[in-house]
User: Which sequence fits this backbone?
């Protein structure tokens, strides 16, 4: 502001000098008088601008009083309480607020919020695939502008995309670890780079290979790997406006045929939870089961990105799939001061410092770029395998609830033998055409 004032005064003075050099002494005198008046007026205006800016910049010291309810997963309740205590110590201006942390998992939070937004939490963690429903229900406040800039600059692109609906940022990313990759027994699987090799090793050792083919989440590893597409567009209100699908295509046929081929192996078992698996040689699972995998495989514990596979067309494809994220949402508030406190706490709980502390406490993989580069995160075998895999995945966007049921039916038709590995391409294409048409009907 000081620079602006100096600039205004210098401009006026330069104008007086130029005019004085071009006329008589009398004209110069008149011009000087006029200019002096102009400079005085300009100085007064500039001083008023400075005063207004100073008043606008004055910090609020009293945010009032109130209660703020926070929902997080059960295993991070204690951690969150500890972080909130640190937040309170650093922000005495928020001392009028009472913070209550309750155990509500990311999978349940969205349903509870949508059922009764008013009774729901003020701040809550949720899985990114629920964001469209939450926006539609009016359960998410748009992220405040300055916080939005920080979120976009400090987190990985997948997490930012997952927190965005219709070009608007609605949530704060807190993890980038909800994807899947391969856990395997390295005494059984000699080379985890190809799907055919993994299955052959499991068959030879009499071990099981687990993959959940009747899940719309895991299924995409094959379809997206061959280049088939299935995404949905949403408007600013979270309504599904268009289905973008190329499943009913040559690429889709290659993927579905490969799924059927895998299911025909004597080593195949449908599933993705290592704690429920038996006689495991290899399993496609996520970071949440890392400890269970270590306990099961012991010294033979190993993990890697998903393998490549050879399609019926003779081409090699890298398995792909979804990347998933945990997000922190803020409920709209009638009280602007309470909303400011909620925004400040959400920004803190999603910061680099807290994300890294959360990883150290419970092993959640951070979405913050700097936290991802820490030595501790880099040394985590499961997170490293996931990081390798995320290079080949797409961020999971918003999908209608009916999509997941439909995908289960598609996988079940293979498991039951209704769709066999030796079926004709026409049969595969018919199944995919029916699937795609139904998917398209979910977007109005």
Assistant:
């Amino acid at each position: 502001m000081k620079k602006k004032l100096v600039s205004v005064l210098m401009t006026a003075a330069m104008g007086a000098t130029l005019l004085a050099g071009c006329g008589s002494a009398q004209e110069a005198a008149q011009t000087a008088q006029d200019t002096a008046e102009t400079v005085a007026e300009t100085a007064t205006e500039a001083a008023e601008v400075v005063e207004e800016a100073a008043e606008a910049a004055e910090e609020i010291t009293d945010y009032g009083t109130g209660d703020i309810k926070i929902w997080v997963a059960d295993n991070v309740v204690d951690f969150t309480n500890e972080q909130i205590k640190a937040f309170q110590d650093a922000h005495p201006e928020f001392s009028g607020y009472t913070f209550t942390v309750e155990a509500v998992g990311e999978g349940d939070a969205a349903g509870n919020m949508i059922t009764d937004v008013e009774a729901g939490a003020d701040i809550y963690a949720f899985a990114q695939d629920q964001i469209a429903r939450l926006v539609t229900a009016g359960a998410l406040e748009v992220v405040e502008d300055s916080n939005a800039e920080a979120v976009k600059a400090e987190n990985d692109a997948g997490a930012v995309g997952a927190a965005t609906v219709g070009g608007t940022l609605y949530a704060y990313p807190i993890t980038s670890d909800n994807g899947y990759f391969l856990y395997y027994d390295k005494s059984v699987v000699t080379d985890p780079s190809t799907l055919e090799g993994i299955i052959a090793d499991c068959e030879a050792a009499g071990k099981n290979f687990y993959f959940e083919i009747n899940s719309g989440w895991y299924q995409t590893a094959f379809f997206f790997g061959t280049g088939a597409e299935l995404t949905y567009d949403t408007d600013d209100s979270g309504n599904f406006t268009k289905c973008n699908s190329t499943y009913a295509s040559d690429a889709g046929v290659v993927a579905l045929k490969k799924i059927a081929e895998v299911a025909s192996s004597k080593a195949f078992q449908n599933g993705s939870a290592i704690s429920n698996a038996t006689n495991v040689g290899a399993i496609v699972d996520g970071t949440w089961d890392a400890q269970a995998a270590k306990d099961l495989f012991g010294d033979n514990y190993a993990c890697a990105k998903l393998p490549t596979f050879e399609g019926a067309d003779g081409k090699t494809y890298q398995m792909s799939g979804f990347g998933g994220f945990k997000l922190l949402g803020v409920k709209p508030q009638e009280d602007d001061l309470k909303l400011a406190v909620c925004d400040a706490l959400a920004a803190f709980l999603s910061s680099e410092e807290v994300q890294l502390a959360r990883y150290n406490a419970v092993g959640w993989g951070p979405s913050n770029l700097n936290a991802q580069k820490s030595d501790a995160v880099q040394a985590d075998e499961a997170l490293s395998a996931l990081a390798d895999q995320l290079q080949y995945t797409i961020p999971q966007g918003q999908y209608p609830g009916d999509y997941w049921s439909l995908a289960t039916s598609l996988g079940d038709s293979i498991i039951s033998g209704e769709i066999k590995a030796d079926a004709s391409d026409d049969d595969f294409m018919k199944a995919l055409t029916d699937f795609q048409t139904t998917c398209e009907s979910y977007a109005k």
Remarks:
- The first strand starts at residue 66 and ends at 72.
